[in-house]
Structures are given as structure tokens and as C-alpha cells.
Amino acid sequence: DAGVIQSPRHEVTEMGQEVTLRCKPISGHDYLFWYRQTMMRGLELLIYFNNNVPIDDSGMPEDRFSAKMPNASFSTLKIQPSEPRDSAVYFCASSLEGLYWLGTGELFFGEGSRLTVL
Amino acid sequence: KNEVEQSPQNLTAQEGEFITINCSYSVGISALHWLQQHPGGGSVSLFMLSSGKKKHGRLIATINIQEKHSSLHITASHPRDSAVYICAVYGGSQGNLIFGKGTKLSVKP
Predict the structure, then answer these.
(1) DSSP per-residue codes, chain B
(2) Is the dihedral of CA B85, B31, B46, A77 positive or negative?
């Protein structure tokens, strides 16, 4: 398997523009997670899906952020409008088992999308 | 105070040295996870453990549930071990995954 695939790897945009980040989880994994990583705050969970359904979006910072998972093999994280403080590396991860509640599943990360908002 | 604290934040070692990275947490957990993150962002799951010790090659992870502490050891370190090592715990009041800030390891040849 190719692992979790994210695109784009790097994005530089101007404040106010819409940003869309994409993720393809590992085939068969039923959990998908979006994380944001900054120097100040480390890794933060934004939202996660189970079987394409958003379960917990309490980590999504503002209404400017939205995430969708239209099918089992694709998810998007959208920021509209983007702001300089959104600059970070955004990671997508997938898991096969009930990660949170059982603590037994392994978590597989993509290589991240580095976003710079000028 | 962060719920997951790692030490040290930065670590420089010579090739061949024995390395220890520590993780302390303040919440009740069901399991603890060690991740390795290389420059460029890719993260690899190293261990998941809820008690005792696990070993994989030159890597050893231990956890003491009573003391709320885990350690990651690297024996005979190598420059390719240079990465950021992140501790994450499952648990807390909402049962979510809580990450430490990471330990940046640099192994010099």
C-alpha cells in the first residue's frame, strides 16, 4: 500500500484566498484524522471521521475551517478565507481500529501539507 | 502546564551513544504512543504500549503507569536516527489523543 497520501506538499498563498488540502487514507482504514502542527502548539487534532462521518470537530479552530469526506478514499480540509496565522503543517492520518476508545489501533500519517499564508 | 511533557526538547549525540527520551503525563490513559517524525514531515508509528516494555531493533520503549512516565531508548545510535520523537497518550477526560511537543534528536557521525 502507498500509505496515506496528501496533496499538495507545499502551498503558498495570500491572505484571503481559499485553500484546499487533500488526503487519501490507506485503503480499508475506517478512521481518518486531520492534524495541524505548529512550533508553538505542536500537533493538534482538528477533526476526525469514522466511516466517512465526522465524529468530533471540536478541534477545528474557526468557521473558516471545514472538512469533508465524500467517500472512504478521499477527504478535504478547506480554509476560507485563509489568514497568516493558519500557516502550519497539516497532517492527515488514518487508522483501522477504534483508536481512541480502545487504544489499540496504530496511526499512519501522511507526509503533511506545508501551508504558508502571506 | 501541558498534559504531556517531553524531555529534553533538543538532544545532540555522537554516533554509538545510548539515548533516552522521556515522557511524563498528567492524565489517566489507556495507552501511550511513540512517533518518529523525519524532516519533510513524514511520521512513523514506533510503538504503542499500555504496560511494561516493547523492543524493536535498537529501539526500546518502557512505560510505568503508576508513575505516569514513559521512556524511549535508542541503543547504538546512528545519524539516520536523527528525527523528532513525539510522545502521545490516549485518555484524558474526552478520551482523545494528546501529543507532547516532541524531542528533536540529532546524531552526529
Answers:
(1) --SEEEE-SEEEEETT--EEEEEEE-S-EEEEEEEEE-TTS-EEEEEEESSEEEEETTEEEEEETTTTEEEEEESS--GGG-EEEEEEEEETTTTEEEE---EEEEEE-
(2) negative
Question: Kind of pairing, strands B10-14 and A113-117?
Answer: unpaired
Mean pLDDT across A49-55: 85
The three-class DSSP label of residue B81 is helix
pLDDT in tens, B16-68: 999 999 999 988 777 788 888 876 656 677 877 888 888 878 889 999 989 99
The most distant pair of C-alpha atoms in chain B lies apart, rounded to whole Å, by 44
C-beta atoms of B99 and A89 within 8 A: no
Grid coordinates belonging to A8: 499538495
Chain A CB within 8 Å of residue B46 CB: no
The CB density around residue A28, as the number of other CB atoms within 10 Å, is 10
Quote the Cα angle for A18-A79-A90, to 5°.
120
Cα A58 to Cα A39: distance, rounded to the nearest angstrom: 21
Mean pLDDT in residue range B84-108: 80
CB proximity A101 to B under 8 Å:
yes
The 3-state secondary structure of B53-65 reads EEEECCEEEEEEC
pLDDT surpassing 70 at residue A102: no
Could B96 and A56 be called an inter-chain contact, meaning their C-beta atoms sit closer than 8 Å? yes
